[in-house]
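Teaching assistant here, posting this on the class forum so everyone can see the example we discussed in section. The complex has two components, and the goal was to see what a joint structure prediction looks like when all of them are supplied at once.
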Amino acid sequence: MKLWLNGRLIAPESARLDPSDRGFTLGDGRFETIRYENGRAVRLDRHLARLRQAAAFLAIPLDWSDRQIEAGIDAVVAAANLAAAAIRITLSRGPAPRGLLPPAAPEPTLAITAAPLAPPAPPARIVIATVTCRNEASPLSRLKTLNYLDNILARREALVRGADDAILLNTRGEVAEASVANVFILEDGVLRTPPIDDGALPGIARGVLIERCGVVETTLRPADLLSAQVVLLSNSLGLRLVMSIDGNMIGDGDVPDEVTEPLRIALASP
Amino acid sequence: MKLWLNGRLIAPESARLDPSDRGFTLGDGRFETIRYENGRAVRLDRHLARLRQAAAFLAIPLDWSDRQIEAGIDAVVAAANLAAAAIRITLSRGPAPRGLLPPAAPEPTLAITAAPLAPPAPPARIVIATVTCRNEASPLSRLKTLNYLDNILARREALVRGADDAILLNTRGEVAEASVANVFILEDGVLRTPPIDDGALPGIARGVLIERCGVVETTLRPADLLSAQVVLLSNSLGLRLVMSIDGNMIGDGDVPDEVTEPLRIALASP
């Protein structure tokens, strides 16, 4: 599968990342995951706005225009001959000598890849991660950075415990997010999701559901998940129902279409 | 400067890191920084033991033997023609398809680089980072992982505030560590350093100072730093005095040699 690397479409076997790239040595960078279907990247404008905002916060220059990035996405999708794809845009601060302080004139790395879109997943068995937690006090909890080890640990804990995914709590024991998705509950007819201040990543799909489906930001505790009628996970690639948490079934196992259909419609609209 | 990459000594311009390397895409890996002088890597046994322990925790296979890694270090130092060097060993989970879950059969990346050792630094002006904090509740706070963005943010804050380095507090507001060093204070003749549970990285130099110089692990608050007679930073590359914190001078500006000399001797011994 060819990738777009700093403006060139190349075969992976000839793609060369400098081993001194700060993305590799220090996790010094940022990424976006975007759904691609019907010939275009879904909500690319929001993804690129979020990418630029984070790049500015991290002081990583991003000199590629939106049009150039969009052309890069189209090129990798076309080269892979995919009708639907999961796009990843990775921005790192690029190669640098050793030391924590960013170089004065960084030459950032921008990589775009496409992978087949996984089919919709069945309802998930999830666990509440015990091995680690999310640091809601760090501004990085609001950015999709290359520092994903806490999430990897949580995801691995899920595997070991026979589950599909894990929810990370914040340092106060409140719900932050799943390993690669935001968390939503339905209770008494109201959809709720943890606020950003609780360590939830400001997901693009999350933003759409708040805007279009009246989702309310509320601090959630693990008990709120267990007593909810419906628990959902969302990210830019899709929506997934939660079947059980730590082995406890959620709701009565029957989620009416009138709950999920408006969400799917909202997420499917441009 | 040539680097050792997965068993081969190569020129950086021909070194090729796969852009799907999880070290780059997810910060999924670990590193060591080691002082090299007098023809050998200082306390290499401890560094390699720590590297293997962390690799086991992260479930990243490390099939290279200690002898092979040592030969790699010697080779990069010789190729760079350095008498003294800062060695970095980076271990990542290696290339993988997209997704958080580690591949079943990872092919890890091991890279060894050498850089000139910086001369001893003058006493540091430091700040207490306000932009972010260290998550002492994550097991990653006890590992030198590739997730260094919080430390980068803190180090950049120091630069912006006209200082040389920053101290990160933990989520409870207690002292954890500096951006690339452990923190020590001298008060009433006793040397103290924050315990691991407070978010301090278990530095190799820190371990030596605890074993050989009677350093006591105690929770430290910012006020403890400000009222200390002496504040010191240590890492595997050296020891550094702190001149001021947030603009407040530490002690009377005169650190007697009998304080620092035993520490330097302890760190200089094998």
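For the discussion questions: Residues 44-58 of chain A form the longest helix (15 residues). The mean pLDDT of chain A is 96. Think about how each of these relates to the inputs above.
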